[in-house]
Amino acid sequence: MAALDGCSADENGPAISGITLDSRQVRPGDLYVGLRGLHAHGARFAASAVEAGAVAVLTDAEGATLAADAGVPIIVVPHPRAAMAVAAATIFGHPADDMTMFGITGTNGKTTTAFLVEAGLRSAGHHVGTIGTIGFRLDGAELPSARTTVTTPEAPDLQGLFAAMAQQGATDVVMEVSSHALALQRVNGTRFDVAAFTNLGRDHLDFHKTLDEYFEAKARLFTPDVARIGVINVDDPRGRQLVERMQASGVTVVTTSIHEPADYQVTSWYPGPRGAIFDVTTPSGQRTLELSLPGEYNVRNAAMALAMLEAAGLSFDEVVQGLCSAQVPGRMERVDLGPDSPTVLVDFAHTPQAIASALDAARSSVHGGRLIAVLGAGGDRDAAKRGPMGRVAAERADVVIITDDNPRTEDPAVIRAAVLEGAHEAARDGVIVVDGGRRREAINEALRMAEVADVICVLGKGHETGQHVGSEVLPFDDREVIRAEWHTLAGRAEEDLTR
After folding, report:
1. Each residue of 363-384: b (16+ CB within 10 Å) or e?
2. Which residues contact 122 (CB under 8 A, 6 or more apart)?
3. pLDDT tens, 83-110?
4. At the topology level of CATH, where does 333-496 sit?
5. Half-sphere exposure (CA, 13 Å, Cβ side) for 293?
6. What is the pLDDT of residues 46-72, one digit of tens each?
7. Where is UDP-N-acetyl-alpha-D-muramoyl-L-alanyl-D-glutamate annotated to bind (predicted)?
8. What is the reported pTM?
9. Element spanning 265, H or E
10. What is the architecture of the domain spanning 96-325?
11. Residues making up the binding site for ATP
């Protein structure tokens, strides 16, 4: 067996020029990583990886037995995922070291905060790479890449992205760091200059099993070997817990809050003509920002983004224009339907906490009308959050239309029934709760019910352009469907008038 240090690009071992954990994507010179999977151990495919050009195999003890006849050096480690991440960083030349790294974790707000940080950096003249739910971009332009995960790529892909961004002139990288990525050690080998914690709510318990396990995964981002500075929302009790840990471990702490004393404390906020306007006390003085995003939770996201930017050494004057003009696809995004139409907002909210925040923000835009919520829950995911999702919607909206989200391999009607049960339990007098059926029909129902003064919030999919049904991903963009259904309804209304 070869030692990890002995399998490097020098005269003592094979020259490694790349790394992959997918035997179908091996190129000559690659280190092939054989990981234990749900259905099979990746080391079973070592022979085909070697045939494609792999020059060494990294795996665990079980994988070493399976790959014994591969004919190349086999590196055996107890934790191959962690070793893979460090190896990927080494093979790509530690590209993150040449850029300022911003990492954001939390149940809700990661994407919006990342967009705000990116906008602030770009207004200061920086070249910014972004990695997260909405994709991989450099200075706003999409980078072509085959996505293998929803938010944070696997370590070989991640380090490859860092390298590509650095080669194309990126000075900074802003990325969402998911709890899965931290639990699966995808960011090992990377140190963040500034890491942020937005909040902790109920999500991903199909993977983490308990809220404590979920929190501990996110807490890994705020250890001395992973982050230099942590920016923490101390309105969240888990945030206050993180602060105590970081102070004990020596990580520099910057706090943000709306309700608690903090380094960046929002002292007041109110709805403005474009979004939310707020005042915040900061180490550099009292500041006022007028956002292009609505709601208290976006005030919280913006205060965190400002704290991250100043923690990295930028000034308020450099970043304020970007912070105030930033907009985020699929996050409280308005779908313009023209004159004499209801206000329609699309948001990615798919947890009880996020739904509550989105509907609270939408309520501030309701003037004399009703708030109509359209939402559903994903299949093959944490089933226990479905009832609470319906509950918080019925507590805040005047009309709740339950529909399909991404049902995946589950029966959509069963998923809707669970969300409906929570909604019916919480519905106040006068609140309408209906089963809207399939998503297009539910959107049509909301538009037919709505009057000009009403606000419709279509929640759950946001920027997504596909719907996972069974084993297929069918084309479905809430924004396009809303426009198409409105056009159809408007056409029918016009026909009725001319009869």
Report:
1. bebbeebbbbbbbbbbbebbbe
2. 128, 139, 140, 322
3. 999 999 999 999 999 999 999 999 899 9
4. Protein-Tyrosine Phosphatase; Chain A (3.90.190)
5. 29
6. 999 999 999 999 999 999 999 999 999
7. 21, 23, 151-152, 178, 186
8. 0.84
9. strand 264-271
10. 3-Layer(aba) Sandwich (3.40)
11. 106-112
